[in-house]
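Just curious. Protein, please.
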Amino acid sequence: MASSNDDGSDSEYVHPRGVPHFPGHERRSNTLPIWGNERTMNLNPLILTNIQTSHYFKTNLSELKTYHEVVDEIYYKVQHLEPWEKGSRKTSGQTGMCGGVRGVGAGGIVSTPYCLLYKLFTLKLTRKQLIGLITHCDSPYIRGLGFMHIRYTQPPADLFGWFQPYLEDEEEIDPKAGGGHPMTIGTMVRQLLTKLDWYDSLFPRIPVPIQINIDRELAKSFPPVQQQRVVQQPELPAATGRDQRDWRRDERPSRSPPPRRDYVRSRSRSRERIRDRSRERDRDSRYRSDRDRERRDRDRGSDRDNKKQKSSSRHRSRSRDRADQRRRRDDRR
């Protein structure tokens, strides 16, 4: 393992591959500041709970007391950098705050790398020890956990200073559980600076002004790739003057012609036909409603006439009956 100058001396640390750490670090205190929550390491609550209740953390890692013992454990046990072991977390069918990158809802088996990452946090690493992690020569996963420790715990204003010497580091690492996502240390460091998502979890959010400065500094060394269309020019025939100009004019991409007048006129006619049909439907509906109203009025009038006729016929029949009764009485007398 590369020496990390754990004695706290102020001598400048030099990367064993020849890359110095960010300028001015030798004038800073060997005690590292902790940004954010000093108890949780800014970890997701679900991940932290699973770490603190895991058998591996409570039993195996509790026996490791020194920085060098934890580094050796990382060397022998860590093969990825995901927060959950492969296949132990089920997020299918979950949406919103209950799945995906939010890291809440259905938990899984917390990974060995994250248990060791939190163990390093509990040791309260010094600046020299943390530099020893990110410059370690034996395993890229020791370096990866060192960079993740920086991302979780160090002030956002210091992140680019920590990561700048390693933006083009070519050592390969595969952070995905089970393999299948190889990248260089430089790519991983740039991802830590520009993205919050990390395999079903989130890093602490970087304030917007600091993130703008980080993006500006990264753009100086890694400008965004601009996709340019390569247009192959056709071979021009052996012609000069007017013929050559006509050839080039023919090869220009044709623009979409403006809409023709007859097309516009046909559209206006179709609108007029639609309006005429709607007017006809309105007239028909009004005519039908008037006709129905008249029919109802006639029906009511005929009903009234029938009632009057019935009542008058009943009245006449009653009067005839009374006249007949009088005549019978007179005849008896």
Summary: Strands lie at 172-173, 183-184. The chain has a mean pLDDT of 78.
